[in-house]
Amino acid sequence: MPVRVTDVVCPFCGTLCDDLECDISDDGKKILEIYNACAIGAEKFMHSQSDDRLVLPRMRQEDGTWKNVSYEEAVEYTAQMLSNAVKPLMYGWSSTNCEAQSMGSKVGELCGAQMDNTATVCHGSTLIAIQDAGVPTCTLGEIKNRADFIIFWGCNPAHAHPRHMSRYSIFPRGFFTGKGHKGRTFVVVDPRHTDTASLTDYHLPVEQGRDYELLSALRVVFHGEGDRLPEVVAGIPKETIIEVGEKMKAARFGCIFFGMGVTQSISKNHNIDMAINVTRDLNEFSKWSIMPMRGHYNVTGSGEVWGWQYGYPFCIDLSRGYARYNPGESSSNDLIERGELDAVFVLGSDPGAHFPFSAVKKMNKLPCVCVDPHITPTTVVADLHVPVAFVGVEVGGCAYRMDSVPIETHKVVDPPEGVLTDEEFLEKVYERMKEIKGV
């Protein structure tokens, strides 16, 4: 007889949906069905049940073939690699729990590593802007219960965060938003006509790379000078900018959600500086917040953990025994491209799929360990692939939602016999490194 497990947290995206339900076999070893999850979240749960899943670490041989090794051998190889490296990179940390992130930091301190997470290629510019200008933000619960004006700028939640609109931003009926989507004004700013844009009241097809200009034009409108704008700004007619700007001023409670279409286009962190200033201007007329659409389910958590450990959220240099921070100098891609690294350790991410090809080629020539339950482009270029338990499926732990609210994920089923968790593997590496270094 199947057993129903409720209040399961989905470890896919930064929305961290916490209303999933799972039917599991009565022996507690097999997930039979998933309810309430989006298609991607459900696939992540079911993929953990794959019959061809790796359950042992594997080492690349000289002829390019793979050989299964024990976890003890994997621990020894990893500990020796990091202990002997002069400048190792420990990258990723976005698809694991905060407990593993904290243990990984101890390993990084012991070997003087360059510590970086996936924000370096997505919302790192957001973190820099927040350090410059602060951030007027809120929780997703406040959005659901209060917001009557929603803007998605440079993001497409219909694909990247499939349940965001139905749970928090557009469709749900909250305490003060009883009409749901009928009581909300919905704007998308995106050069493309995305599936999200097809649902909107206003789609502003901003010219690519000119977000800064459109944000500046909105500030002009807020200050009552809209008539002085050019006839077209960033591909948007002046009349449309004025109309949308006036509606934003009249909103009761609004939020700007923004994605990598803003953070990784021309101007980068300066786009976010301007977006934060737009939000600040709007608070002279009504209540407005701004929030990044974080991708990996715990990329926010890695920034939080390092923030309270080191004072910096990413691009951390521990080579001198204390934390230094200088994006551009201490960021992953720059370190790899300049040839400054002599070892790479990857956990909870896939740089092989997302880094520039030139960086991946250089990474391929370095000693590399990848800790991941999946076979990925990164595991293909690694010398050692260590499969681990799925966080949020086979092991619990803390994760931070995109609004920086901590959510405790739950274990649903047991991992395959003998498979370690991220935290357990890192702890074994840490203890072995202490023996090697005599500390």
From TrEMBL:
Molecular function via GO: formylmethanofuran dehydrogenase activity; NADH dehydrogenase activity
Domain Molybdopterin oxidoreductase: 53-417
GO terms (BP aspect): methanogenesis; respiratory electron transport chain
Superkingdom classification of source: Archaea
Stored InterPro entries: Formylmethanofuran_DH_bsu, Mopterin_OxRdtase, Prok_molybdopt-oxidoreductase
Gene3D superfamilies, sorted: 3.40.50.740, Dimethylsulfoxide Reductase, domain 2
GO CC field: membrane
Pfam families named among the record's database cross-references: Molybdopterin (PF00384)
Keyword rRNA-binding: no
CDD domains, alphabetized: MopB_FmdB-FwdB
UniProt keywords, alphabetically: Oxidoreductase
Stored NCBIfam families: one_C_dehyd_B
PANTHER family xrefs: FORMATE DEHYDROGENASE H, RESPIRATORY NITRATE REDUCTASE
Listed name of the protein: Formylmethanofuran dehydrogenase subunit B
